[in-house]
Structures are given as structure tokens and as C-alpha cells.
């Protein structure tokens, strides 16, 4: 590739995010489309093409039905406009749990076909070996402990974790094992107050919290939640906008203008050339 075609903006990579441990909090949001990624890019250190795309964009009841093809398609869309933020693509349910070799083939496919900088896996005890296998073969991995949405059928719903001592100890151990296996950062989702801080103090890579208190090295939210695109959001989401209300108002205005023949007006039509 010629020097002219190199990116001019320096993009965050796994070592840059890892180096933020204990420093300025890492700003992360989910992104699934090119226009949203373009808007988020200048504000975020890391954008996650989360498998939450299945629920947020495709109307699935949970993330279990999300496929590798869906993740690749959305990863490609985000990578077309992301310039500065690190882009991490979620490995969907069924694409990495079976064996490290299968995980490697699927992770390599995600990275080759999207150009993203890392993948994320939900770390259970059996996934730790896979994280090590991927990292040793050149694939940066972000872990994910606590509430693991892909385990919804085992858990019987999306429930906050770490309320009892045994579960707290298990999640802490999983976070330590995930970091020891080489993950460059670990998402900590939906855990009882205090556990995220304990994990943050116990591991040497940044913790990225979602519903996990401010005791983390960074935060992530589902962008559509924080923009107010849904009528219901989980307790841990702070809404920074009411786009649902704004969109509804805009569409009602358009519908009324069309019905009243006020749209299109003279400014919105083409005129033939005189003569
Ligand atoms: O899929 C997702 O969006 C996630 C984040 C919310 C952490 O895993």
C-alpha cells in the first residue's frame, strides 16, 4: 500500500486501551451502522459492534439468534466510517464456545472481513483457554463477565449478578482468569455494587462497566438506550436525549404535512429550465 493511502488519524488499538488502566476513564459505546459510527467516532475511545444489535436493530428477544454473518455485516458498516476509535466486534453465541480452533477460525474471519481491531467474548470458565489461544495467535480479545446476555437461557433471564458471596467469588475469579489469559480489557456487566471495584483493583487491564457502578476504568452503554430510542431502558442507563419523542414528533409533522398537501412545497421541488 502506498504511503498516501495510509490513514492519517491515529486509531486507538488494544495496547492504547490497556494502557488506560487507572487513568482517564475509557469512553465506549455500541455502534452498528455507518452513520452512527461516524457520529460517535470523535467522542469515543472504543466502539463495540455488540451482539445487542440482534435486539436493538433486528428485534430479536435476546442475543442467542445473532449470527456471524450479522456481526460481520454490521462490523463492515461501522468500519467504513470509524477512523479514530478502536472497533471491537462481538463474537456471537455458538461461534467460539465449542473449541479454541473453531473460535480462531471465526475470529480471524471477523477480523479479515471487517478490518476491526479486536473481538469480544463472554468469558465463562471454559472460554479462558480460548482467549489465550486467540491472543497468542494475534487476535486481541476483550472479555465480558458478570451478567452474560448469551447465557440468558441458562440464567432464565437478564438478572443482575454477584448478590451472593459465592457468585461474587466466581465472577471475580472469572475476571482474573480472563485478564491472565491475555484479554486487553474486560467488560463487567450488571453486577452488585462493590464487585466491579473489587475486580478493577484485582486485575491489571481496564474494566469497562455497564450497570456495574463507577468503580471501573471505563464505561459502555448501548447507544440507542442512552439516546432514548426505547420506551423502556434498564435502571443503569442514563438517558442523554429523547430521540424517541423527537422522532415521533418529526414523523407526525411529516404525516400531517403530506395529508394537508403542505409537503412538498416550492423549495422542495424541481423546476423546468425556462425556454
Ligand atoms: O452486545 C453488547 O452491546 C454488549 C455491551 C452492552 C457490553 O455486550
Write the layout of secondary structure elements.
Elements: H1 14-18, E1 26-30, H2 34-41, E2 46-49, H3 53-56, H4 68-79, E3 86-90, H5 100-114, E4 118-120, H6 128-136, E5 141-146, H7 152-155, H8 165-180, E6 185-189, H9 195-202, E7 207-210, E8 218-221, H10 223-226, H11 243-259
Parallel strand pairs: 1-2, 1-8, 2-3, 3-4, 4-5, 5-6, 6-7, 7-8
Bound molecules: 3-methyl-2-oxobutanoic acid.
Structure, described:
The chain has 275 residues and is an alpha/beta fold. It has a single domain, classed as Phosphoenolpyruvate-binding domains (TIM Barrel, Alpha-Beta Barrel). 37% of the residues lie in helices and 13% in strands. It is built from eleven helices and eight strands. It has an eight-stranded parallel β-barrel with strand order 1-2-3-4-5-6-7-8, surrounded by six helices. Strand 1 (26-30), helix 2 (34-41) and strand 2 (46-49) form a beta-alpha-beta unit. Helix 4 runs parallel beside helix 5 (100-114) and helix 8 runs parallel beside helix 9. It is globular. 3-methyl-2-oxobutanoic acid binds at residues 30, 48, 50-52, 90, 144, 187, 189, 210, 220, 222.
Which bin fits the share of residues in helices? Answer: 25-40%
Structural class: alpha/beta
> Shape, please?
globular
Q: Which ions and ligands are bound to the chains?
A: 3-methyl-2-oxobutanoic acid
Mean pLDDT: 95
- Report the radius of gyration as a whole number of Å: 21 Å
Beta strand count: 8
Low-confidence stretches: none
If strands are numbered along the chain, what order do they take across the biggest sheet? 1-2-3-4-5-6-7-8
SSE pattern, N- to C-terminal: HEHEHHEHEHEHHEHEEHH
CATH architecture: Alpha-Beta Barrel
Q: What percent strand? A: 5-15%
Superfamily at the CATH H level?
Answer: Phosphoenolpyruvate-binding domains
- Count of structural domains: 1
Q: Give a short account of the largest sheet.
A: 8 strands, parallel, barrel
Q: What's the N-to-C terminus distance?
A: 52 Å
How many alpha or pi helices?
11
What is the name of the CATH class?
Alpha Beta
CATH topology: TIM Barrel
Amino acid at each position: 500500500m502506498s504511503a498516501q493511502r495510509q490513514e492519517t488519524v491515529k486509531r486507538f488499538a488494544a495496547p492504547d486501551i490497556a494502557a488506560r488502566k487507572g487513568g482517564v476513564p475509557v469512553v465506549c459505546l455500541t455502534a452498528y451502522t455507518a452513520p452512527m459510527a461516524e457520529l460517535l467516532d470523535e467522542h469515543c475511545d472504543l466502539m463495540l459492534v455488540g451482539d445487542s444489535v440482534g435486539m436493538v436493530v433486528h428485534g430479536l428477544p435476546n442475543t442467542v439468534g445473532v449470527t456471524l454473518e450479522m456481526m460481520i455485516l454490521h462490523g463492515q458498516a461501522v468500519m467504513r466510517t470509524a477512523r479514530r476509535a478502536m472497533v471491537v466486534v462481538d463474537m456471537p453465541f455458538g461461534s467460539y464456545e465449542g473449541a479454541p480452533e473453531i473460535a480462531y477460525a471465526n475470529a480471524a474471519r471477523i477480523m479479515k472481513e471487517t478490518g476491526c481491531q479486536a473481538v469480544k467474548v463472554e468469558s465463562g470458565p471454559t472460554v479462558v483457554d480460548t482467549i489465550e489461544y486467540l491472543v497468542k495467535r494475534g487476535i486481541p480479545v476483550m472479555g465480558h463477565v458478570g451478567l452474560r446476555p448469551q447465557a440468558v437461557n441458562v440464567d432464565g433471564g437478564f438478572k443482575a449478578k454477584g448478590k451472593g458471596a459465592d457468585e461474587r467469588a466466581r465472577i471475580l475469579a472469572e475476571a482474573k482468569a480472563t485478564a491472565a489469559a491475555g484479554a486487553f480489557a474486560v467488560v463487567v456487566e450488571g453486577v452488585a455494587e462493590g464487585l466491579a471495584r473489587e475486580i478493577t483493583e484485582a486485575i491489571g487491564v481496564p474494566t469497562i462497566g455497564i450497570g456495574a457502578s463507577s468503580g471501573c476504568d471505563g464505561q459502555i452503554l448501548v447507544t440507542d438506550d442512552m439516546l432514548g430510542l426505547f420506551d423502556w431502558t434498564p435502571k443503569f442507563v442514563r438517558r442523554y436525549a429523547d430521540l424517541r419523542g423527537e422522532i415521533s414528533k418529526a414523523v407526525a409533522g411529516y404525516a400531517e404535512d403530506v395529508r394537508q398537501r403542505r409537503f412538498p412545497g416550492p423549495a422542495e421541488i424541481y423546476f423546468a429550465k425556462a425556454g
